[in-house]
Amino acid sequence: MTVVAAAPPSNCINLARVLAGATPFKDLGIPNVGETYRGQILVGTSEVRPAIIKDIPSRELANELLATALGTALALPVPRAYLAIAPQAALPAKHAPKLSGLSLVFATADVASPSVASVVRTASDQSAAIRAAIEFLMKSGCLGDLYGFDSWVANVDRHVGNILLGGTGWPWLIDHGRCFTGSLWKASDLADPSLIFTSRLKQWLTPGLTKENREKYADDAKDLASKLKGVDAGALATENWVADLLDASDFSAVVAFLIGRVDHVPRIAADALDLIA
Questions:
Q1: Range of 252's domain?
Q2: Does 96 score more than 70 pLDDT?
Q3: Which end of the chain is more exposed for a tag (fewer CB within 10 A), N or C?
């Protein structure tokens, strides 16, 4: 692939470079399935920022870039993201695509906030902890947008580890590598944009909501769907190097899926909110 290091357009993901010293989550005692690191990145020529860095394959990287760009364009609470180059000496990547001997990894600003999973895992009363987390999310006022967004991008993995509880009363939405039906999707998986896929929110969050809550969030998701018509998914995908990571047919498939799915978002979100018999 070819990455052109030009100034990215508004709402797009920046380029960065991973600096030496990144530490694997497993060495920090943080439970995690993939190859994830806490470290520092260099943005521009002199700005050093703390970051969470993920060593992931091309398709999963494309998912992260595209979903994060879409979320950013919609002003959803996603941490600032970067497509970062990583010398092997700085980060021994195993899965990332390569460019001129350097690994291409996904990095996000380290917002230093606990996940719902970590809060629940360390609580003496886990039921009370999950209830408190749900109340936190309800007070944030963005749950309807969350249901709508995950319905649009077919996120099948919004489990309790993929929402961070920010200290300012605002959640952070992270880990979008399993959007678009999963990390190993094929164009054929996206052929019908009307399909309902697994919703992890429906499994753990929806049961903690009253019917009145659920109906409100369904209305909010419907409002978000009207905003989606103004999002140029193809342009955002191109501007954020997704077209460089996917072949032409897969790129066309995911863009067509997003465009075709907009009108189905209210129904899909309503299903995730358990409002459809």
A1: 116-272
A2: yes
A3: C
Residue that is written with structure tokens 């969470």 in the block: 52
Confidence at residue 108, expressed as pLDDT on a 0 to 100 scale:
97
The predicted-structure confidence for 135-160, as pLDDT tens digits, reads as follows 999 999 999 999 999 999 999 999 99
Compute the distance between CA of residue 220 and CA of residue 270 in angstroms, rounded to an integer.
10
Specify whether 96 is located in the same domain as 148: no
Verify that 83 and 188 share a domain, yes or no: no
Q: HEC string of the chain? A: CCCCCCCCCCCCCEEEEECCCCEEHHHHCCCCCCEEEEEEEEECCCEEEEEEEEECCHHHHHHHHHHHHHHHHCCCCCCCEEEEEECCCCCCCCCCCEECCEEEEEEEECCCCCEHHHHHHCCCCHHHHHHHHHHHHHHHCCHHHHHHHHHHCCCCCCCCCCEEECCCCCEEECCCCCCCCCCCCCHHHHCCCCCCCCCHHHHHCHHHCCHHHHHHHHHHHHHHHHHHCCCCHHHHHHHCCHHHHCCHHHHHHHHHHHHHHHHHHHHHHHHHCCCCC
| pLDDT band at residue 10 using 50, 70 and 90 as cut-offs | low
What percentage of the chain reaches a pLDDT higher than 90? 88
Tell me the backbone φ, ψ of residue 204, rounded to 5 degrees.
-115, -25
Is 21 domain-assigned?
A: yes
Would you say residue 3 lies in a domain? Answer: no
100 burial (CB, 10 Å; 0-12 / 13-18 / 19+) is exposed
Residues 58 and 138 in one domain: no
